[in-house]
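Please go through the protein record below and explain what the tokens say about the fold. Record follows.
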Amino acid sequence: MKIVLTESQILNLLEKINSNEVTCNKCGWSWKLSEGGDDPYICHECGHNNSEEEYRGKRVMVYYNLHKHTFSVTYKSKVILHADYVNLKNVEFRVRKGGKEKVRDEKRKNVHAFVIGDLVDYCEHPCKDLPEESSNKIITYDPYKYDTFVYKSDESPVSFAKEVEMINRKNKIFAINEITSSLIRESEEVPTKYTYTTIKPFVKFKTKRYYFNKIVPVIDDSPIPNKIKMVGNDGDFIFDDKDLKTTLGGDAYIDTDAFNSEYPNFKLKDHEKLSATIGITSSNVRTALEKAFPDNWNAQDDVYTPGLRGIYTIGEKINDSSEDWSIMNYFDTKDEIHSLIYLKYFDDLKDGKDVTDIVEWMSNLFKDDDEFTQMLVDRQWSSIKNGLDLERNSVNNFLDKVGANNAIYYPHGSKMDRWNGVDVTIDGVNYQIKPLKSYNEKNGLFYVNTYNMRDYKTKKRVDKIAFSSSSKVLVFDNTNYDVLNKNNVAFNEEPLIIE
């Protein structure tokens, strides 16, 4: 009799076999764990300790385990670990045609889609400190819809990537670095010099890096072969091009060891003090905007806070002419914008331009340098777009469930929204509305997973906090809660649930 095993059965069988048997990674000798004595992972042939095998840097194959609901990581056809977080470099996305067609024919899942790459880092299942979903490009696969892995945003196929993160949450795979960098110019020349705003250290499990934030390629008058220059607030640096990697989000990073080998005495600076020392402050930025665009500056009235309207508007970005609040109004509190202005200040100083009056200089910059101002607007918009989209969707979901007949919605720039934290008023009750990702109850506390949560108890005009999704709304009083972090809050009272 011939027995035919499916791919998923073979992989499950391998896992069971490998979990009870050890194969020496040095000499190939194998034995059962039960026969290993007090040191079951010590090879009795060559003495190699197989419990200390370091798989980072090895070429591994990863698939989503449909039974354990986590990622299985294999090396040389052996499952070496189960992980809720996996970071890979030099990545290939592979779909086995036979397995895909079998899913479609039998309408039953099997393991046939794999992510292959060099293992950089991981957190074993169950991971106690699982990262939040990345903001980078999401890669997905559905055998009933696609023949390959695709980008979720536009369903375009993807076969390779320089680096990916796999996080065991709703969306599984995130591209950190594509094969084709978005920062390569149309001429296909790879930039050899960038400006950046800040440097920030990054530590996740055993991965340690320095990130150069918000990089912009600039002309390099004296390029050095196989080198990349980074010029910015924390200093000027030169690195080997093989060590510095760019990301989809417009950042760059280098491993801490590579950085320290070149600059062992490096210390981070206080960026807020840097820009403030020359007068790039919130109040001066607001004054400069008012001087630059007096026809668009609106003083405080009964509804709105003071600010620009009708120029570089939110409405232009979202196709809504009623939204005339300017994106530039957010320049005053955005550190990144202050850092970019700071860099521009020293460029102009070096070129011999008059920068003695910082407010006058910023005013002329905003008014006369259309290219630079547009770049600032685009940077500002990229940082607030997702938040505004989430806010809009959350308000719409809330009104769909609660009813919009007696609702007053406060536009961007209004006093109620900007100063008092109120999004909507219904029948005299003021609501701050947040997106609802998930919630659960434990030991009398109600935990809510949301976005950009803060403590609104000091906002006396906020009566209720509502968390909304397309399926339900949770409503709490604006009292008796603790903000755990920007995405999680714990309430001490049971919510009103509207479905």
Notes: Residues 412 and 418 are 7 Å apart (CA to CA). Residues 13-19, 180-188 have pLDDT under 50 and may be disordered. Residues 55-177 form one domain.
